[in-house]
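Show me any protein, keeping tokens residue-aligned.
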Amino acid sequence: MNKCHFVGKLTDDPVLYDQDRTNLVRFTLAIEEYRKDKSGKKIRRVEFLEFEAWSTAAQTIFEHAIKGDCMAVEAIAREQKDRDEFSNVNFRVTNFKIFNSNNYENVDNDE
């Protein structure tokens, strides 16, 4: 099963695109991770992960999420290769919830 769950903060406002008459939104979440090193000291690490959402989910995220909002995201991981054949992992949103926004919604992606 390919299902991932993340909670993080938007690093910028989501960007909406028209992809063959279908809405596509792209955004980055800063995901914090805490662990202890060998001496027991707590270490904070931040990962910046790229996400995309389509159709009505894309429109809802674009309309209601802003930089700094916290989001809970369910996604599937997809490998994408760039022009130089380097692999990147991209996450396609299947469900989400926006926090800290005046109008937050929980929407299932159509796909």
